[in-house]
Amino acid sequence: MGTSFKRMLSILLTLTLALGIVGCSKDGGKSSMGRYVEERYEVPEGVEVQTLSLLENDKIGMIGYSTEDRKPVAFISEDGGKTWTQNSIVLPKEEGKETYTNNIVYLSNGTILLSYYFEKPFTEMEEGAIDDSMSVEGEATTEEFVYEEPEYKYATVDADGNLTDIDLDLSIYNDDDDSMEMGMGYSSFKTSSNGDVFFTAGSNNEKVVQFDGETFEEKNIYEAKEWISDFFLVGDSLVIYEFDSIVEYDTTNGKEKGNLEALEKATISENSNYYPTFLNSGSKDKIYYYNTLGLYEYDMKSEKVNQLVDSAISSFGDSEMNITSFVEKSNGEFLTTFSDFSNAEAGSAIINFAYDANIPSVPENQLVVYSLLENYSIRQAISKYSKEHPDTYVKYEIGLNYGDGKTQSDALKTLNTEIMAGNGPDVIILDGLSAESYIEKGLLEDIS
User: Fold this and answer.
1) Contact between residue 61 and residue 113 where contact means Cβ atoms under 8 Å apart
2) What is the C-alpha separation between 218 and 433, in angstroms, rounded?
3) What is the pTM of this model?
4) Is 400 exposed, middle or buried (0-12, 13-18, 19+ CB in 10 A)?
5) What is the pLDDT of residue 142?
6) What is the pLDDT of residue 291?
7) Nearest-CA neighbor of 191 among 102, 76, 109?
8) Average pLDDT, stretch 354-360?
């Protein structure tokens, strides 16, 4: 249904333009100037990109996986992501087992930190074959499969590809002796601009532990109230995001600085319609996050939230693209990587966002698409259409939003008032609306 619907809506939008029914922005004012524009950079051949990291001297590190053998590959760029030089990663081996990796990131000095484990390779049983150990008196039996958590190891890899294991036991931060059996053996980690490393830990993933990035000696322990949804680093601050709170900590002394109330109000309060995904950008004073509507920044100094990129005119609105990493470059531009499901051959996209003050903040030609309820297929169709028609801005209006207190009757009254005043949408998606009543009033025309 999704593909045909997107095609139908795209055709409908094209017809609307062809007929000259181009709506204007409702404020009637002249569009302001300046917005971020996208530029795609070439992805190294045969690489599925995973993460980006800011390194010293304005270099950028990139980790990916080979599409041929799924082994990790590493690159460094000295020109902001336009070209890449590959680094070597040689993983350790254990007889009779495969080496698998979890988290891999660059430290700021160019050293690579990774988590790995050994596991027997998966082999498919031939059809009709039964292992002797699973048969009794000629009858097949089934044994209960018991998952065994592998032993996770941590190591650094230098510029020459040499791997050095780290003596790091994160189980000491568990309060529950049975936590290893519950699957809490693996800990994710992120790196800060000063080279320190921050690991999740604890029986219920309720702690973040800060280590020196060279000696791996413990510096500070941060404990959340319950379970950590995510954490990220901004300058000298660690920010822990839980389900109902966003709390800042000082990484120089390990002390709590308090809740980021303005950010909580904008992202996770009861009146928020879209939950955020926060980005570990390497910024010194900005928190970046994105949601269905686009990319946003939170200024730690002014405590204000500002939308930077509108999803309607960017890859952030394309549901076939999923962002995998994001860094803020020293020149104010953003380098991002996406999983690109629309491009099966490449699989990944590297996109640079640069601010252009000489173009309108939104394209001058504008269309308004309306639906009573939010529909993500519509958002995808709008994103696709906007990429094909960069001179047109498609604004998506939704009649009923979660938490706004409106009823369907209220939404329809507002829509009818706007239509009668000549300010109605250019395209209406009739999801639950009666086409006949609008046709009788002379507000809709059959253009098939």
Assistant:
1) no
2) 61
3) 0.80
4) middle
5) 56
6) 92
7) 109
8) 94
